[in-house]
Amino acid sequence: MDIYESQLEKLCRAWEIGLGMIPEDDQSETADMARAVYCLFRSSLNQTRFIRARDEGRLADAVVAAQSELEIAKQMLMLMNKNPAI
User: Fold this and answer.
1) DSSP string of 4-56, one letter each residue
2) How far apart are CA 27 and CA 69, in angstroms?
3) For residues 52 and 38, what is the distance between their CA atoms, to the nearest angstrom?
4) How many angstroms separate the CA atoms of 79 and 9, rounded?
5) What is the C-alpha to C-alpha distance for residues 6 and 78, in angstroms, rounded to an integer?
6) How far apart (Å, rounded) are the C-alpha atoms in residues 75 and 72?
7) Do the beta carbons of residue 53 and residue 23 sit within 8 Å?
């Protein structure tokens, strides 16, 4: 893992902690934006992992990254449908 990927991973873990502090029933725009920004960070991490795995011939790891990206895309779509500012 290179520095870029490890820093993205640290950022995502820290953001997840912050999201855990937001009540699940909080539907405010601030909460929506925080969730959307997490999706963007996580998507960057997924894409980095996918490309690295693909280039190194680790098909199983590439599939895991693609599956994670699909879940993040679904979350982002939900947020975009709910909030047109996203």
Assistant:
1) HHHHHHHHHHHHHHHHHTS-TT---HHHHHHHHHHHHHHHHHHHHHHHHHHHT
2) 23
3) 21
4) 22
5) 28
6) 5
7) no
Cβ pair 41, 85 in contact under 8 A: no
Cβ neighbors of 11 (< 8 A, separation 6 or more) are 41
Q: Which two tokens stand for residue 40?
A: 């963007």
Tens of pLDDT along 40-77? 999 999 999 999 999 999 999 999 999 999 999 999 99
Contacts of 31 (CB under 8 A, 6+ apart): 22
Give the 3-state secondary structure of residue 2: coil
Sequence letter at residue 5:
E
Model confidence, pTM = 0.90
pLDDT at 40: 97
